[in-house]
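Exercise: predict the fold of this chain.
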Amino acid sequence: MKPNSIRDMQQALVERFGEDFEIPLSDEAADRLSCLAGHRVHRDFLDRAVDPELLRVLCACAMSAPSKSDLQQRDIVIIQDPDLRRRIGALMPQYPWVLTAPAMVIFCLNGRRLPQIAEWRGKPFPNDHCDLLFNAVGDAAIALAWFQASVDMAGLGGCPVSEIRNHAELISEWLELPEKVAPYAGFCLGWPSENGHITPRLPLSVNVHTDRFADGHARQDIEAYDCRREALQPARRQRDPDVWGNAEAYGWSEDKARQYAVPLRTAFGAYLRRQKFDLT
């Protein structure tokens, strides 16, 4: 147990959310939660391999995550083949850590397993509709989150790579994904070469509600968050200045508005249908 765990957790939450938190926990409990509160992004790694057995343990921790109705609709593909890794990295040269990270895995959502089991057990499967996909996405997302937490707790670092969904057809072909299995996100990991940084998040006043959804103050709270984040972590560049110009104040909301001002992954729904997911 680290000394002053409560203080460390409070400092991490102040940096994350810009407000003070009381921590009604023991030092031991705060020490465990500090890994989540103080999560940092890591994309630069030491030239040190990740032991395959450690990677297997991290996968086991990820698969220990909760699963909707114990359906277990998620899979992990460990990328070991150097040629496969190079091909994946070549698809996204803007993310050099896809090639330089010591290890990479890909999380997949699996809508195939339940229909298979129904067939094996001689049972009907009247649930081949959008809920099958929705449940599998949830299962994959929860496992990915547990994998990130496990990586952090083990002293490694890493980051998810959702860009693989921009190349879902090729990734599926290369990984030989069958029908009703689709890539959800990659994850690159290794031993961090630097401390990383805590990413400021929206204040809880925006996205934590009591009894009913209420976002009447969302705009002003997001604008305040923009100012705080720009002061702490100014954007390295502004998106599409040739289209939108250079904003005098360029906060998180301006960046996200620009990011989603162009169509993104418009073919992904068609890809899912080709993978035999029913979206109705």
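Check your answer against the key: The chain has three domains: 5-37, 52-196, 204-259.
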